[in-house]
Amino acid sequence: MTTTSILFPIIITFIFLLTTNLLLNVTASQPITFPTLAIHTTTVSSNDFAVTVMPTLSAYYFVEARIGLPRFPVNLALSTTIPTTWVQSADCVVCLDVPSKSMNFEPADGFEPVLGDDTKYCVPPVAKTATLGDPCRYVLGFSQGILGNDTFSLVSPPSTSSPPSSLEINHFIFGVGKQNTVNFGAHSPIVGQLGLGKGHPSSTLSQLNISRFSYCLPPSNSNHQNTTATLEFGPKAGLTTAYYYNTPIVEGPPDHPFDYYLNLTEIAVNNASVYTPSKQRRGEPGFVIDVGATVTLLYKEAYIRVKDAVMEYLSSNFGLYPVYPSRPVTKPPTYELCYYNQDLESITTLAYPNISFHFEGGAVLQLPESQAFHNFVDELQTCLVMIPKTGTEPSRLGASQQRGWRFTYDLLQSELSFAPNGC
């Protein structure tokens, strides 16, 4: 082995550490620079398992699964804020608007309810204490019903020769949804959620005996057959290169035990800091990465700073002013900063401002134009796809702002890693 081949990886590692250290020492008044990273993503090893991730037009992302014997196909939306998987039942009282049929969960087909005396799974905060011998009832976000178990499998991409074509689990614990109030969009194919949250015995990760998973989200309007977007499980899921960002996953408050909290250090617009959280500031309940939320919800003060910086940039550089009142009359009714499409299209030199989120450890998530702004054709408007949040809920990094990056969750190390161009 030559001296050059020995020194090269040492030099690269030194440069990466030096760059990260410089990022940590940037003050709020200085422009923020970004390291240039050489990125590549993993190929799935024989110890890992991959599932195709598919988008809906409403920016939810789902995977294909099978339940029971014979196998009944279901599409499950990804969620990192609930631990337990749930599926809508055919006898639901409050039902999702889905074109596909829901499953009848019958003991004759192998389904078994979890009973109230099951102290391993029928425990708070997921499940309510039930009368001994009666089915265990659960409450998970937008779904309520009973816990049960059946054969469960996740389906790999058709082109994947290794690992095997499906991952099958016998006696998999999941929720049978009787009251389901989430809106996945009109005529969505989604009939439940694949819980990827942490911290409960009935969680999908606990039952898979997995402490590491990774996903990359394709654009919401993409044809999934032309992408390599996957959800991966296993010790080698995600990134195999040293060139990625990582940041600690921290403990949230007791009333959010399943969420993945991150320490946000600042938000920048055009590389200039516009918002820095303060640990002493009251009423700021933290920052969560949430693949089940379609857009990013920001603490109100943070949103105002971002909104004002975007408005100032577009007005001073291009003479553009937002729609007044600053939201579409029809859909989407929730976005506050919007511009008329014809005004934007009239400027051939228009460049949108870049927006970036900075996290503990020097991790930087810089949003391309397509992730920060969305063109709503019917309303003739383009909007900043972020929403100011109200109440005491944490800020959430939604799926629309995660597209095109590969995120890897390592529960043993309590660390989130991410890099661009992951799919």
Features:
disordered N terminus, globular, Cathepsin D, subunit A, domain 1, alpha+beta, 6-stranded mixed barrel, 423 residues, 9-stranded mixed beta sheet
Describe the structure.
The chain has helices at residues 3-24, 204-208, 300-318, 341-345, 369-372, and strands at 49-52, 54-55, 61-67, 72-79, 86-88, 112-113, 137-140, 143-155, 166-180, 192-195, 212-216, 230-233, 245-250, 260-262, 264-269, 272-275, 287-289, 296-299, 338-340, 355-359, 363-367, 373-376, 381-384, 386-389, 395-397, 405-410, 415-420. The strands form 5 sheets. The chain has a 9-stranded mixed beta sheet, with no helix packed on it. Strands 3-4-10-5-9-8 form a 6-stranded mixed β-barrel. With 423 residues, it is α+β, with helices and mostly antiparallel strands. It is built from 5 helices and 27 strands. The chain is globular. The longest helix has 22 residues, at 3-24. The chain has 2 domains: 49-233, Acid Proteases (Cathepsin D, subunit A, domain 1), CATH 2.40.70.10; 245-420, Acid Proteases (Cathepsin D, subunit A, domain 1), CATH 2.40.70. The model is unreliable at 1-47 and 160-164 (pLDDT under 50). 13% of the residues lie in helices and 32% in strands.
Largest sheet: 9 strands, mixed
- How many domains in all? 2
| CATH-defined fold name of the largest domain | Cathepsin D, subunit A, domain 1
Strand content: 25-35%
Topology diagram in text:
Elements: H1 3-24, E1 49-52, E2 54-55, E3 61-67, E4 72-79, E5 86-88, E6 112-113, E7 137-140, E8 143-155, E9 166-180, E10 192-195, H2 204-208, E11 212-216, E12 230-233, E13 245-250, E14 260-262, E15 264-269, E16 272-275, E17 287-289, E18 296-299, H3 300-318, E19 338-340, H4 341-345, E20 355-359, E21 363-367, H5 369-372, E22 373-376, E23 381-384, E24 386-389, E25 395-397, E26 405-410, E27 415-420
Parallel strand pairs: 4-10, 5-9, 17-25, 18-24
Antiparallel strand pairs: 1-12, 2-3, 3-4, 3-8, 5-10, 6-8, 7-8, 8-9, 11-12, 11-26, 13-14, 13-27, 14-17, 15-16, 15-20, 19-23, 20-21, 22-23, 26-27
